[in-house]
Amino acid sequence: MLPTSTDVLVVGAGPTGLATALTLARRGVDVTILDQLDRPPTTSRAAVVHAYTLEVLDRIGAAAPLVAQGVRAPRFTVRDRDRVLMAVPFHRLPSRFPYALLVSQSVTEAVLTEQLSGLGVTVHRPCRLTGAIPTGDGVLAQVDDQALRARFVVGADGMRSAVRQIAGIGFAGQTGAESFVLADVRVHSDLPRDEAALFLARSGPLIWAPLPDGVVRLVAAVRQAAAEPGPADLQSLLDERGPARQPDRVTEVLWASRFRVHHRVADTYRAGPLLLAGDAAHVHSPAGGQGMNLGICDAVALGAAVADVLAGGPERLLDDYTGRQRPIAEDVLRFAAGLTRLATLPPAGRPVRDVLLRLAGAVPPLAQRIALRLSGLSDRNLNGD
Fold this sequence. Notes:
- The chain has 10 helices and 19 strands.
- By secondary structure, the protein is of the alpha+beta class.
- It folds into 2 domains: 5-47 and 104-170 and 267-344, FAD/NAD(P)-binding domain (3-Layer(bba) Sandwich); 174-262, 2-Layer Sandwich (D-Amino Acid Oxidase, Chain A, domain 2).
- The strands form 3 sheets. Strands 1, 2, 8, 9, 10, 11, 17 and 18 form an 8-stranded mixed sheet that branches. An 8-stranded mixed sheet has the order 6-5-13-14-15-12-16-19. The protein has a 3-stranded antiparallel sheet with strand order 3-7-4.
- The longest helix has 28 residues, at 316-343.
- The chain is globular and about 65 Å long.
């Protein structure tokens, strides 16, 4: 049953909302988290947790249990069929986590939920925020048919955020023309099971990422994705874009879907006591695996700022959060869009692209710079770490 009052109401129980609530709970803040789904989803898009995100999760005690359930990938390769064009050396990262952790978003959510449960915080389901009226000392929120008072409300409720819409915050951007297939499969393959790969092909890019228990995540840009991609669709993608000498063979499709890419950033992350984080504040191409990672970094930064304000700190800390995180989101949006354009170049430009990638991979300082960018560690200084 929902309480009638709380210090912070977090709307949305994806990785961003859960990480926000966990950050607050570890600081002793009374936090209530709700989600409109009646149960956590078992399928998810995000499949990589980068080094900087693991450092951030380590601050709230969630890195170690997550690492224990993922696949450590010390490098990421860009390939043209059987040829490696570039290898990104995550194993050389200046971090306690010198790898990309390959793990399903549903596992990330389960780990964060378990950490919250250990602190006595449970997710209220299914609950829908239908209104939020700022008052002199916080917010009067309407959750289904119940009123709930909170000092702050955090919108971590995705691209169609109710909190953002109630706050009247603009969400400028566009929907891309790209259509993507997303699937978790089992395959017979000779590719390394500790390395994610991006295959660049004439028909478009294909991401191949190994997950625990022999599962492989496939993501591919296609002209028009099927509503429910089946084994034949996925096998065709691997035949066209994957290894040629020893082709992969799909043995089982666990689940598959399609989606289109959106590129949007909220005008601001704050409207008085209403605050935004994660996909409620920014959405972009999945290229580079940046979305969930940026959302988790938002979450921990926002949770710390709210906790400081509740402990007597100045409210400008919340404006500082917007001033710091929003430019990072804009930069990530540009970076992800650039990667998508690079991967989906028209055939005439691809030979030059491939040569440039091979040259970049042959220059260690440049390869290291790319690793720092993908891992999020290049944002350390921006976040004051």
